[in-house]
């Protein structure tokens, strides 16, 4: 999915992502891409199997060049975390020990607090095949593990980095339901507008003898009004619905496949999947 | 990362994942794997470019065979969602329209409520290159979009499915900090145990003339006690620390690289990264 706006500010802050002995360049590249998606930029590699730099990594990073270019390589995990204040180890395997174990939400909350306090933090990710050794986990302050399906728990390294990066971005958002864009702003309709719609529909139907027999008209009107008020229309939607009725009411049916006369009338079709049975 | 326990119940419920004209079998396989990780099982494909079944998909699914085997193929998107009650469209591009736009947390909350009410739901994902058309988005009830870095917003399809599947699993959890395993259960120490530690340390140091000059001893003791009470030790940790002091106190220094005599004493080393500066 696209949607990148290169004129918008590049977010690049937060915990370092530390990959311990990653094997495949593709995976390193996909990690860089996942980091860039959620505003992380500092990638550290401990002994990458196939060396560094890696063309495969750059290609898989899909233009997350700022992450690839800034990647640092270390010989030992100790060297890679020496300057950090607080480190998480990710693991899917149960570890017996004293270290606190967090889910991603709690861990990124902690990381965000430490970030705000000016601490340098990192998250360790193990090898593709067997993760981190107990000795490597022991170097971390706390453990983070993912709430996966117990019967199918194997996450690949780029996916694990993606989830932590995503939770990192969310930890900085005040409103978890914040989105990059919103629908066209709409005002709820007033009752007067709803009554206008009722009148319009009922007049058009009445002109066609719809309310038959006449003694049933009050009940039929009640039912119609129930249908058209249940939806909670906005002003714009009322306008679209009235456009539909106006068109049906005023214009005769043409030959098959004729193009509707007024662009306004197309709106209701696009929206009908949304409103038809709610 | 491994950690799969094949004896545990396979979770397989929740919204259908619908891929519209997916191009690469590898991507379909990675989608299946991401779904299985978080307990989703129903995969639907609309016109997969390279046909179905796909050996590349099965291979990339890393044993999520139950998802691959149950995958259904449809000729049109309408056919693929005909039996569903409520459908989300995922998109990274801004869409101008009336449909509500949600972030993953809000969207999966809605999906979970509908699931509990017995409704059938689905989530649409577009083509690798350009996502969903406006006409396809129009078939959905609501839109879901990801809180990505605006300057680097391109998520691949398997990553987008992963995030929605992950949020789906979280939407069913009462405690968002729930994890698959927990550290060894520990009781906070009592004050008596802390005082025992103080006495032990102070006696061992006193026996070596540590508190010098004598008039400074009260202040030195205060400082020591501050250091050893700040950590909030648990019972087990107190026991490990006392093992360390006992060893230092009782046993003479050996030749370099000698092996510690008692296994108990090793515990403190593993834990020291955690407790040293908190």
UniProtKB/TrEMBL annotation, chains A, B:
Q: What is its EC number?
A: 2.1.1.200
Q: Which residues form the tRNA/rRNA methyltransferase SpoU type domain?
A: 16-166
Q: Where in the cell is it found?
A: Cytoplasm
This protein's record includes keyword Cytoplasm: yes
Which Gene Ontology terms cover its molecular function? RNA binding; tRNA (cytidine(32)-2'-O)-methyltransferase activity; tRNA (cytidine(32)/uridine(32)-2'-O)-methyltransferase activity
**Catalytically driven reaction(s):** uridine(32) in tRNA + S-adenosyl-L-methionine = 2'-O-methyluridine(32) in tRNA + S-adenosyl-L-homocysteine + H(+); cytidine(32) in tRNA + S-adenosyl-L-methionine = 2'-O-methylcytidine(32) in tRNA + S-adenosyl-L-homocysteine + H(+)
**InterPro entries noted in UniProt:** Alpha/beta_knot_MTases (IPR029028), RNA_MeTrfase_TrmJ/LasT (IPR004384), SpoU_MeTrfase (IPR001537), tRNA_m1G_MTases_N (IPR029026)
Q: Where is this region: Disordered?
A: 253-278
Entry-linked CDD domains: SpoU-like_TrmJ
The answer to whether keyword Transmembrane helix applies is no
Q: Which Pfam families match?
A: SpoU_methylase
Q: Tell me the SUPFAM superfamilies matching this sequence.
A: alpha/beta knot
Cross-referenced Gene3D superfamilies: 1.10.8.590, 3.40.1280.10
Q: Its GO biological process terms?
A: tRNA nucleoside ribose methylation
One cellular component term from this protein's GO annotations in UniProt:
cytosol
Sorted keywords for this record are: Cytoplasm, Methyltransferase, S-adenosyl-L-methionine, Transferase, tRNA processing
> Span of the secretion signal?
none
Chief subcellular site?
Answer: cytoplasm
Q: Whom does it interact with, and what assembly results?
A: Homodimer.
Family of the protein in this entry:
Belongs to the class IV-like SAM-binding methyltransferase superfamily. RNA methyltransferase TrmH family.
Which PANTHER family is this protein grouped with?
TRNA/RRNA METHYLTRANSFERASE, TRNA_RRNA METHYLTRANSFERASE SPOU TYPE DOMAIN-CONTAINING PROTEIN
Q: Which NCBIfam families match?
A: rRNA_methyl_1
Function of the protein? Catalyzes the formation of 2'O-methylated cytidine (Cm32) or 2'O-methylated uridine (Um32) at position 32 in tRNA.
Q: What is this protein called?
A: tRNA (cytidine/uridine-2'-O-)-methyltransferase TrmJ
Organism expressing this protein natively: Neorhizobium alkalisoli
